[in-house]
Write a structure and sequence with these properties.
The protein is an alpha+beta fold. The protein has a single domain, classed as Roll (Pnp Oxidase, Chain A). The chain has helices at 3-15, 50-57, 85-91, 96-100, 136-149, 163-172, and strands spanning 21-24, 27-28, 31-35, 40-46, 60-66, 72-82, 117-132, 156-161. Strands 1, 2, 3, 4, 5, 6, 7 and 8 form an 8-stranded antiparallel sheet that branches. Strand 5 (60-66) and strand 6 form a beta hairpin.
Length: 187
């Protein structure tokens, strides 16, 4: 992988953990953790929900992230539903109880042993993302200029990462940056 591809991967995946919105098919979900050098994504799930049924019948997935600055990422891959209690306990968060509730039956209590709690593990295959190249004011000026002149506003830089690029970084753990900011990005 050449340097700019490695930079592209290193800008994308560390920053998606700061995103407030993640959309998967027809459900909003919260990113729990990143593995595989930050490339594989894990989400908590209610195993009795429609989204787990959908993923069992078709594991192909596309998830999208949007951060507060308007930068976005779209990641395609395959998902696996993990119900192994050791894995669930490893990534369990007490806030899950608020989303699942306590059914007061001694089993379905929203705790780490609640059989409704599982993990969706997404194995990323490709990614496309946009890095803001201007401040909010600069983007506004570009849009105004485009409106007047008919030119396309230059408000972000799009990057695409192939399966090969993601796999190489997964095993070499090539992350160093913690944002999508394109400092030093020459591609």
């Amino acid at each position: 992988m050449h340097g700019t591809s490695r930079q592209g991967v290193s800008y994308l995946f560390p920053s998606i953990s700061t995103s407030r919105i993640c959309i998967q098919k027809n459900a909003n979900i919260q990113l729990s953790v990143q593995e595989g050098g930050g490339i594989d994504l894990l989400f908590h799930t209610n195993t009795e929900s429609g989204k787990t049924d959908d993923l069992k019948s078709d594991p192909k997935i596309n998830i999208a992230f949007l951060n507060p600055t308007g930068e976005w990422a779209s990641i395609s891959g395959e998902a696996e539903i993990v119900t192994d209690r050791e894995v669930v306990r490893k990534y369990y968060s007490p806030t899950l109880k608020a989303w699942l509730g306590d059914l007061e039956d001694g089993t379905h209590d929203g705790g780490p042993e609640d059989p409704r709690i599982g993990v969706i593990k997404v194995f990323a295959k490709t990614a496309t993302y946009a890095i803001a190249t201007k401040t909010m004011l600069g983007r506004g000026m570009e849009i105004a200029k485009g409106t007047v002149t008919g030119s396309v506003p230059n408000v972000n830089k799009l990057r695409e990462l192939s399966e090969d690029e993601l796999e190489e970084c997964k095993w070499s753990h090539c992350f160093g940056r913690r944002s999508w900011t394109a400092i030093g990005d020459t591609d």
